[in-house]
Amino acid sequence: MAFPHETVQQAWERQGGRCAACGKVLHWTNRDLGECGAWHPHHILPQNQKGADHLNNCAILCINYPNCHLNVGHGGDWTKQAPLSKTSLPYLRFGEPFHRVPRPPGRPPWRPF
After folding, report:
1. Is 102 exposed, middle or buried (0-12, 13-18, 19+ CB in 10 A)?
2. How far apart are the C-alpha atoms of 91 and 62, rounded to whole Å?
3. Would residue 44 count as lying in a domain?
4. In which domain, by residue range, is 25 found?
5. pLDDT one digit per residue (tens) for the chain, 113 residues
6. CB burial readout 12-41, b (16+ within 10 A) else e
7. Which of 19, 21, 44, 89 could cross-link with 62 by S-S, CB 3.0 to 4.6 Å?
């Protein structure tokens, strides 16, 4: 199954339109497209490990450079289906607006090319 549209929309709003792993600004219209600001909703706990299609299991990840969907979500290997840890998603916040989230220590600000 895939996430319902409403769940994806809520995850998008929760994250402020940013990648949960790197904080990169994404574009709503570029879902699953290989263009600038492209993104994909990812299961934090994989479906094959009984991960549900609920908001608390949804993370929005970028799919072009640095491609957090592949490199964080799948550990660099599309065949891997491992659960994600909270430390690998520093920009994922539950119940708190994105603009109040401080930048994790040691992470440089992301700048577009």
Report:
1. exposed
2. 12
3. yes
4. 5-84
5. 689 999 999 999 999 999 999 999 999 999 998 788 999 999 999 998 999 999 999 999 999 999 999 999 888 888 888 888 878 888 886 655 444 445 555 655 555 54
6. bebbbbbbbbbbbebeeebbeeeeebbbbb
7. 19
Considering only CA atoms, give the Rg of the chain.
Answer: 13
Return the closest-CA partner of residue 61 out of 82, 43, 80.
Answer: 43
Q: What are phi and psi of 58, to 5 degrees?
A: -115, 130
The model carries a pTM of 0.79
Q: Does some domain include residue 28?
A: yes
> For residue 107, is it within any domain?
no
**Distance between CA atoms of 92 and 101, rounded to whole angstroms?**
9
For residue 105, tell me if it sits in a domain: no
Q: CB–CB of 14/94 below 8 Å?
A: yes
Q: What CATH number does the domain containing 75 carry?
A: 3.40.1800
Give the chain's domain count. Answer: 1
Phi, psi for residue 12 in degrees, rounded to 5 = -60, -50
